[in-house]
Specification:
Elements lengths: L12 H4 L2 H6 L20 H7 L4 H6 L1 H15 L4 E2 L15 E2 L7 E2 L22 H13 L6 E6 L1 H10 L7 H9 L1 H25 L3 E6 L7 H7 L1 H10 L6 E5 L6 H7 L3 E3 L6 H8 L4 E3 L11 H15 L5 E2 L12 H15 L2
Parallel strand pairs: 1-4, 4-5, 5-6, 6-7, 7-8, 8-9
Antiparallel strand pairs: 2-3
Helix pairs in contact: 5-6, 6-9, 7-8, 7-9, 9-11, 11-12, 14-15
């Protein structure tokens, strides 16, 4: 897969030449860029204080608060990119589903898809303005960030969204979702088609609002084997990446996908996100020279002593070997009780150890 250099019409020189965007284009950088999944979250006292006053959905739907949360985290940590504060499930409400985040529990979809005929209840996201609060937040974040710090927009991948819609929430084995997929392949394809079309429109609207890159989170796709991915997911993911605005870098992240890396590459994305269960250097060899890689420190390492954090950061940087196209990140999101000082220290270490 080859990646054409996107035009610069909507990107300032400072942003265009930022470490993060240069790395996404597999160009040389002065130090490895680093940002962290869930870098704005419960591990920060300021975030916990805010959440004591507003619910999670209220926070996501307030452009002012979402922007404040996003910008604050990027400034405190000194990372090379900010990521929009939102949730992958926000898109489900305009698709016609009742979404709730009960206190202390994971998300709940109260009217899940359980039968093939239920797919007909899904309303395509023909009006992306239904998520206008997200795009307003993007604009406020862009205005609040330094002119050298890119903003990453994001969305959930169709497979992961489909699993939530069918399971009605989180799951350990995705029994309902996978059984539906095997038993109703026609309805499954119809479901994925609507999710692809809606997600592409949602991401492109984020770009139009001011995001410089996008990430697609396929958090649950690691539950599939290669044959199932090839049959039930690959065609839809390929179409999604073809529909996303090619003027911005597209990051394709999946959890527990060591057996699927080549298929993920074939599905699309300028950068492939790696979790901690794989070795970065061997994974990059498998992926080939035409994509960048992002990752892949185990989030639990941030609970370790500083010398161990340093050792693990050096190990990953050594595996990347200074090759253009590496973006340092965790293999998944920052955990809620992570010491903030360790997160800041990691960012400083990555910059120091990788300085060219």
């Amino acid at each position: 897969m080859t990646t054409e250099t996107p035009p610069r019409s909507t990107t300032t020189d400072a942003l265009w030449n930022s470490r993060f965007l240069r790395a996404c284009r597999r160009e040389p950088v002065d130090a490895t860029p680093v940002w962290l999944m869930r870098q704005a979250g419960r591990y920060m006292a300021e975030y916990r204080s805010l959440r004591s006053r507003v619910s999670f959905l209220e926070l996501c739907k307030s452009p002012e608060l979402a922007a404040e949360t996003t910008v604050f985290a990027a400034e405190v940590l000194g990372v090379d990119a900010a990521i929009l504060f939102a949730d992958i499930l926000l898109i489900l409400e305009p698709l016609g589903f009742h979404l709730e985040f009960p206190k202390g529990d994971g998300p709940v979809i109260h009217d899940p898809i359980r039968e093939a005929d239920d797919v007909g209840r899904l309303r395509p996201l023909e009006d992306v303005g239904a998520l206008g609060f997200v795009y307003e937040a993007v604009g406020k974040i862009r205005a609040g960030l330094p002119g050298t710090v890119p903003l990453i927009g994001f969305a959930g991948a169709p497979f992961t969204l489909a699993c939530y819609l069918i399971e009605g929430g989180g799951s350990r084995n995705y029994q309902r979702a996978k059984t539906f997929m095997y038993s109703n392949p026609g309805a499954w394809n119809d479901l994925m088609t609507v999710l692809v079309d809606s997600t592409a429109g949602y991401l492109n609207a984020q770009v139009a609002a001011g995001a410089q890159a996008v990430q697609v989170f396929d958090s649950w796709v690691g539950s599939l084997g290669p044959d199932d991915y090839r049959r039930f997911v690959l065609p839809h993911m390929r179409r999604l990446f073809q529909m996303i605005d090619p003027t911005v870098p597209r990051i394709h992240f999946g959890a527990d996908t060591g057996s699927l890396l080549e298929l993920q590459r074939d599905a699309g994305g300028d950068v492939i996100g790696l979790d901690w269960r794989v070795e970065l250097d061997r994974s990059w060899e498998r992926l080939g020279p035409d994509v960048g890689v992002q990752g892949n420190l185990d989030p639990i390492v941030l609970f370790a002593p500083r010398d161990e954090i340093a050792r693990q950061a050096r190990r990953i940087l050594d595996q990347a070997a200074g090759r253009p196209g590496h973006i340092f990140n965790l293999g998944h999101g920052i955990l809620p009780t992570t010491p903030v000082d360790n997160v800041r220290a990691l960012v400083e270490m990555v910059h120091e150890f990788s300085a060219r």
